[in-house]
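Researcher: Quick test of sequence recovery. Tokens follow.
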């Protein structure tokens, strides 16, 4: 072991290891207080500001992911320069006396496009992601070696500040495959990460599935969780291991078309205190979320649910680096846990904000008048096969004459499609709502069909990481007699690169109503500063300012402004281009001093109970009835028989606390072999009540694979009372032998179901 030599704040060669019930930094007990930050979500010019803000908060470490797709935009083309210079980021942290934990993937999740995996992997037919597929493993190894070249020399034993490196990410939430996780561990080691502990992070419910003996194990959970419960199993298995919550969720991320997420400062501070008092290390995910600029935001799975551009996360340091009240509450706690004699540095000033008065974008270029050259393709294919990663794609073909109405069936449009007939829009289809069919009017010979598909983020979770964009399979036309697949397409790629955007034929006057178009304008500045572009006049699309891709917007909200870092603005004239997919109410914007992140103007998906709908169980007989135990953690129920199932209904009759509410964090059904059945095609058919006004307690939370999110019945003053019901369509016929239920993770909270009945059928339940 190296001896520690700390000279005037500058760190020389040292050591970091997992000791007896504690981590050891240079041989001394050390509690990691890590701030999760993501370098691509912060303009490089502001990295230092954010690092200083975490230090002044009372943290001693920065925890970061390495985003593979950010560094290898094309196969074999690596980029670690400028905004992507991870080594520079780590050195900057070191300059401020901060240690670094690196989580290099290959998969990272993080609500990032495809969980950090490069889209071009999807060009390979038969690709297997996050498994021992030779091509996947080979590309992973090559990438990890590049990461090693950047960072291995910055490990603490070489005089740097990197103290731990993570292997894969929450693999237990994806599968059980120890050989794969072991292979990734070896790749990480071969890349040069040998001087410090390697660790794997998972949930307490599944960390054993892939746990490797020679790695440190850490647990992820959110604020409010029952902390004793979270570490119980790990302590049983490794009574002498140091404990760490490797992701303590300070808030949560936002989805388009769902309420803005918040988590209380009070429960955050209480959780941190509880851990600090027991010397439990933690990383606060996120301490500063920042922004998923450009096309980098991901989407959730199984119900496709794209995430907003803002990754504010309700974190202590706001999206633009602003210091929030939550920050001060956390700081007031952390200042009591400093090494002897240390005091916290001053909180850095927030970056000044500016107001930009409203201005019009006066030049327009219709998207259809500005297409690049077409590619011909007999069959429909997703955009990856036309070598396109992001943006929109237009599929064009000619239709046969028809006197009658027909139906167009698109399988599947990822993610937001507009259908035009002879240049006029006839339908909009949203993947969030599962829409895929369009009624066609009678057609004259050769009518031109255009299907314009806008890709949102690729899913970053579970099996959703296989998320081809554009139209993934086929387009058919159906009339009374037959269904025919449409062939012979002209394909137009509409990428997001500024180089593609700027060369459009902009005109002063053009009628853009109901047509996708680019809008260009300029604005003058006497002084620069951070601002938030007001997108409330605009429908859906993307914004570029001075050549930087700012991000996606969508009128449904909840996010209505886009964060514009002042460091990308300049004194004098600035250029803004907006691609609006439907057409704005008024082609105007302004720069606001404060963001609008919580103005929901439309739901992305449908609610799970239609007006007046009531579940009728009068004619039904329960297949099982019992009572759940009180307390947190998974409960497993076996029926003692096999039941043919397609539709599953849980009727909750009473609660443990005597309150009126029902909550379920996760629900799994067990098949003939006692193993969990796939939830990939599940749909919630009915939930008697959901809390959607105050928070996102949507019923699909019971199978969103996230243990910290839950279905919760409405808790307004006029809330419904027991019984509560949830009905699921499994999407396939299955034999079911039992189920597993996870209550919400917080101790002593309402909504803990006690008595219940289970109904299972092969035909739909009656709803009237
Ligand atoms: C998990 C992942 C993170 C992030 C959070 C939710 O814990 O490991 O990357 O996706 O969930 O924000
Ligand atoms: Ca959940």
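Model:
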């Amino acid at each position: 072991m190296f001896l520690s030599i700390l000279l005037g704040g500058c760190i020389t060669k040292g050591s970091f290891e997992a000791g007896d019930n504690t981590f050891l930094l240079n041989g001394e007990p050390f509690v990691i207080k890590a701030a999760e930050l993501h370098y691509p979500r912060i303009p490089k010019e502001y990295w230092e500001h954010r690092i200083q803000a975490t230090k002044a908060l009372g943290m001693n470490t920065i925890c970061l992911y390495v985003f593979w797709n950010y560094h290898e935009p094309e196969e074999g083309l690596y980029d670690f320069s400028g905004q992507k210079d991870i080594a520079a980021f780590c050195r900057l942290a070191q300059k401020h006396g901060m240690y670094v934990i690196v989580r290099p993937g290959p998969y990272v999740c993080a609500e990032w496009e495809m969980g950090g995996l490069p889209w071009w992997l999807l060009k390979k037919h038969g690709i297997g992601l996050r498994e021992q597929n030779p091509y996947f493993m080979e590309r992973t190894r090559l990438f990890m070696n590049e990461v090693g070249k950047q960072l291995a020399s910055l490990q603490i034993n070489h005089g740097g500040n990197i103290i731990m490196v993570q292997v894969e990410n929450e693999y237990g939430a994806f599968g059980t495959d120890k050989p794969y996780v072991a292979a990734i561990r070896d790749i990480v080691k071969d890349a040069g990460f040998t001087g410090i502990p390697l660790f794997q992070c998972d949930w307490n419910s599944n960390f054993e599935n892939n746990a490797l003996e020679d790695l440190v194990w850490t647990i992820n959970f959110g604020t409010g969780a029952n902390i004793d419960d979270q570490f119980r199993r790990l302590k049983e298995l490794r009574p002498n291991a140091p404990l760490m919550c490797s992701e303590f969720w300070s808030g949560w991320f936002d989805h388009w078309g769902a309420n803005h997420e918040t988590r209380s400062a009070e429960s955050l501070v209480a959780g941190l205190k509880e851990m600090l008092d027991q010397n439990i290390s933690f990383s606060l995910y996120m301490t500063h979320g920042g922004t998923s600029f450009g096309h980098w935001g991901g989407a959730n799975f199984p119900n496709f649910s794209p995430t907003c551009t803002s990754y504010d996360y309700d974190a202590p340091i706001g999206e633009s680096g602003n210091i929030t009240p939550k920050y001060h509450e956390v700081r007031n706690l952390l200042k009591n846990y400093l090494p002897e004699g240390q005091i916290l540095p001053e909180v850095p000033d927030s970056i000044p904000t500016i107001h930009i008065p409203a201005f019009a974008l006066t030049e327009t270029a219709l998207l259809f008048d500005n297409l690049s050259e077409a590619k011909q393709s007999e069959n429909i294919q997703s955009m990856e096969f036309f070598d396109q990663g992001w943006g929109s794609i237009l599929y064009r073909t000619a239709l046969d004459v028809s006197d009658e109405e027909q139906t167009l069936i698109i399988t599947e449009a990822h993610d937001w499609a507009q259908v035009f007939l002879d240049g006029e829009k006839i339908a909009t289809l949203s993947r969030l709502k599962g829409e895929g069919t369009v009624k066609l009017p009678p057609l004259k010979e050769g009518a031109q069909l255009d299907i314009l598909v806008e890709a949102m983020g690729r899913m970053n979770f579970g099996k959703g990481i296989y998320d081809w964009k554009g139209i993934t399979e086929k387009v058919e036309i159906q009339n009374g007699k037959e269904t025919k697949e449409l062939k012979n397409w002209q394909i137009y790629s509409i990428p997001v690169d500024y180089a593609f955007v700027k060369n459009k034929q902009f005109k002063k006057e053009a009628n853009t109503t109901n047509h996708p178009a680019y809008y260009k304008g300029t604005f003058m500045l006497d002084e620069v500063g951070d601002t938030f572009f007001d997108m409330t006049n605009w429908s859906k699309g993307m914004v570029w300012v001075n050549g930087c891709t700012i991000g996606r917007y969508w009128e449904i909200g909840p996010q209505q402004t886009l964060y514009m870092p002042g460091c990308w603005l300049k004194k004098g004239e600035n250029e803004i281009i907006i691609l609006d997919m439907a057409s704005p109410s008024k082609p105007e914007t302004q720069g606001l001093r404060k963001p609008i992140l919580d103005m929901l103007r439309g739901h992305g998906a449908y609610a799970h109970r239609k007006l007046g709908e009531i579940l009728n169980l009068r004619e039904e007989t329960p297949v099982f009835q019992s009572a759940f135990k009180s307390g947190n953690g998974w409960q497993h129920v076996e029926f003692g028989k096999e039941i043919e199932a397609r539709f599953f209904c849980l009727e909750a009759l009473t609660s443990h606390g005597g309150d009126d509410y029902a909550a379920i964090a996760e629900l799994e059904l067990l098949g003939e072999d006692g193993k969990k059945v796939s939830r990939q095609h599940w749909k919630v058919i009915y939930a008697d009540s959901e809390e959607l006004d105050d928070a996102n307690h949507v019923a699909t939370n019971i199978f969103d694979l996230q243990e910290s999110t839950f279905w919760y019945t409405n808790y307004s003053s006029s809330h419904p009372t027991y019984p509560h019901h949830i009905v699921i369509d499994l999407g396939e016929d299955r034999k079911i032998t039992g189920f597993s239920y996870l209550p919400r993770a917080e101790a002593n909270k309402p909504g803990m179901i006690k008595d219940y009945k289970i109904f299972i059928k092969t035909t739909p339940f009656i709803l009237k």
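Residues 6-337 form a domain with the TIM Barrel fold (CATH 3.20.20.80).
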